[in-house]
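Submission checklist for the structure archive. All mandatory fields must be present; incomplete records are returned to the submitter.

[x] Identifier: Alpha-N-acetylglucosaminidase
[x] Organism: Eudyptes sclateri
[x] Residue count: 677
[x] Sequence attached
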Amino acid sequence: GGPDTYRLRSPPGAAVAVAVTGSSGVAAAAGLYRYLRDFCGCHLSWSGAQLRLPDPLPRLRAEIRASAPGRYRYYQNACTQSYSYAWWDWARWEREIDWMALSGINLAPAFTGQEAAWQRVYHSLGLNQSEIDAYFTGPAFLAWNRMGNLHGWAGPLPPAWHLKQLYLQYRIVERMRSLGMITVLPAFAGHVPRGVLRVFPHVNATRLGGWSHFDCTYSCTYLLDPEDPMFQVIGTLFLKELIKEFGTDHVYSADTFNEMTPLSSDPAYLSRVSNAVFRSMTGADPEALWLMQGWLFQHQPDFWQPAQVRALLRGVPLGRMIVLDLFAESKPVYQWTESFYGQPFIWCMLHNFGGNHGLFGTVEAINRGPFAARCFPNSTMVGTGLVPEGIEQNDMVYELMNELGWRQEPLDLPSWVTRYAERRYGTPNAAAASAWRLLLRSVYNCTGVCVNHNHSPLVRRPSLRMDTELWYNASDVYEAWRLLLSAGAELGSSSTFRYDLVDVTRQAAQQLVSDYYLSIRRAFQSHALPELLTAGGVLVYDLLPELDSLLSSHSLFLLGRWLESARAVATSDQEAEQYELNARNQVTLWGPGGNILDYANKQLGGLVLDYYGVRWSLFVSALVESLNSGSPFHQDQFNQAVFQVERGFVYNKKRYPAVPVGDTLEISRKLFLKYYP
């Protein structure tokens, strides 16, 4: 009944090196990883594993016992479902769930397959298939359909999609529960398809505004009035359907106002909404606990003043809601809401937006933040969480956060990262350890309010007003690059080392792109055509192709991997084409007209050359043409021309390899010899 606890001990006799016991499956798994990590020098992450066990296995001199300081270690963001998991098969899910268990995570969403249940509910209410098809988005955008932000874009969902996702969900919840995890199921937040208004013409529903540069073609969802009887009917119907299908652990997720302004700021109205959502949960499960993302409070602080926050939170009985303080490492909400006015909360590290690549971290903030939150006056903190929008990047930060979820006090970061490098590569190496200490103090130590959207000119539509600001010394990354390369002879056979070498070289190249961009801009503004041709030529014809070949040398940095995983879910050529368009659009235009252009930018082999590279080529040509003809450069005209290039990439049907080519070390060394400043 208390906090999760594990115990490690070496029993007498030689038969068993270590016995691991835990208060739950997750606690035991966390204890197992502690032994593998701290006594066997092993490492496990998204980018690879280093599991060379010592022989014989080390025995413990004394028993080790550890208890988690909070009830929960939470993982996943509503957006991760689309930015990272959209095309996963069971093998990939199984690996993730095992990683979650070893990381000690005991609370996580199980959102897969919910559209199949919604479809049944809509049919039972009298909606026809075309009305349902017009509502669901395509697979790569379902996260925002579920939160009421979007409808219809890149859809519809084929019948085979529902079947395959249902099958996956059965296995996901079974695996999570078998390990002692609490699954969070989706619930009704109040958004309905337009078809509901046809079937029930007297229903009281109002359209919300457009979301994030989308107009009402694909946005402006209908929100049921909290007092309308259909709110309870639909909400309870859906949850009963879900519980009948998957069972329940009594925790449910719903976000009514994610990045959308409520119809009224009247506290009484906001209380009625949250109370209606909660009642629709308890109508199906009297033990329901509502898990809500707290992103909205810091995203629209002008609307969510203390009175409005309090009203929304207090519409639910105290203790029957858990709030995710979603961006606590940079913009904690608990501090200005008296610890969420008494509702329990989880201190979360968001860290990543859009699944962007780019070295980034706020290590000092996450090393101190959870402990400060626990000591806050009348703190209602009940755990820690990892809530990145996209995964498979910056492994170190997540390893650190997972370890902090089990600690009673902060870590000594420089010595921690030295041990991290040794475990990750399977052997101590002075140069690699120095590289990691440099990265830790620079690129991984953003302080103040840090928002990790990759704004590098490399991955943004070119203009004469681009952001090249860094929160760290670029020279630290160049030096870490040099140090890692020098360790290549000794560590080159390690898969995790090769991944890190690509990642650090990629970061150095990203910095170099900014330098060349500034040279291009200076040359253009001072009408120096030869300098413009030189800087533009090096960027377009050498640096970007070299970066593309570096990325193409590692399987985790391939555009083909993302696109082929989308096609693999399909059961027909037509589905394969639809899914591939979903996958391409998400990482580029993000909408029909570049609505959230480059928000989910990635640095992938194939994408750098055929998307970012083509844009830069067009930009340099436009500037050269402007100087040659003496006519001014017009950004608007360029945007119209470059949109055709961007859209052309989404629809070009070119197949990209899902298998790497080239030697990572050789390519990195070649780039280094040419470009190291």
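[x] Structure attached
Curator remark: The radius of gyration is 26 Å. DSSP finds 26 helices and 16 strands in the chain.
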